[in-house]
Design goal:
heterodimer; A: 116 residues; mainly beta; seven-stranded mixed β-sheet; 11 strands; 52% strand; B: mainly beta; six-stranded mixed β-sheet; five-stranded antiparallel β-sheet; globular
Chain lengths: 116, 113
């Protein structure tokens, strides 16, 4: 079974631009979560999508948005890029589960975004 | 709000020694605690996890302990080897909805020969 894939793997943008990152989950997984990883901050939760609906959202400004398609693929968008947005963006997919129960998340390789 | 604190941020041990990483969490309703290992340039990989109805879990050289009263959990690696060198993240699942994990800030473990 293929793992979680993310495209592109590397991206260089300048301040003020916008960027779209893509994540393809493991086949059959309907939940996709996004995390931002920066040195010293660990992984910070951005949002989770399940069945095309945002189910959970972290403490990030509205410049960060996402969506999920009917095939469970997900995209995240960052508008008006700032230097501080430079980070590794990881997505993770999981099977749907019972409310209140955790299902293991499988991470993709990440997209390394550099904002100049 | 939901918070996970992790200590130490860096840890250096000699090969063969033990390593211990500690985490505390804020929400007593948390019921699942995974540990991830991330090697340089690679994705985080789940290495061990524990649910709130268990106090300890072991898998070969790796063990995790959970103290629900004190709201802390620890990762123990025995007989460390150079390939254990990586960044380790603890995390907690808060049952507030969805499949969200809250991570600690990571521990850079270096195993020296």
């Amino acid at each position: 079974k293929a793992g979680v894939t993310q495209t592109p793997r590397y991206l260089i943008k300048t301040r003020g631009q916008q960027v779209t990152l893509s994540c393809s989950p493991i086949s059959g997984h309907r939940s996709v979560s996004w995390y931002q990883q920066t040195p010293g901050q660990g992984l910070q939760f951005l949002f989770e999508y399940f069945s095309e609906t945002q189910r959970n959202k972290g403490n990030f400004p509205g410049r960060f948005s996402g969506r999920q398609f009917s095939n469970s693929r997900s995209e995240m968008n960052v508008s008006t890029l700032e230097l501080g947005d430079s980070a590794l963006y990881l997505c993770a997919s999981s099977l749907p589960g019972l409310a209140g129960m955790y299902n293991e998340q499988f991470f993709g390789p990440g997209t390394r975004l550099t904002v100049l | 709000g939901e918070n996970v604190e992790q200590h130490p941020s860096t840890l250096s041990v000699q090969e063969g020694d033990s390593a211990v990483i500690k985490c505390t969490y804020s929400d007593s309703a948390s019921n699942y605690f995974p540990w991830y290992k991330q090697e340089l340039g690679k994705r985080p990989q789940l290495i061990i996890d524990i649910r709130s109805n268990v106090g300890e879990k072991k898998d070969q050289r790796i063990a995790v302990t959970l103290n629900k009263t004190a709201k802390h959990f620890s990762l123990h690696i025995t007989e460390t080897q150079p390939e254990d060198s990586a960044v380790y993240f603890c995390a907690a699942f808060f049952t507030g909805g969805g499949n969200k994990l809250t991570f600690g800030t990571g521990t850079q473990l270096k195993v020296e020969l």
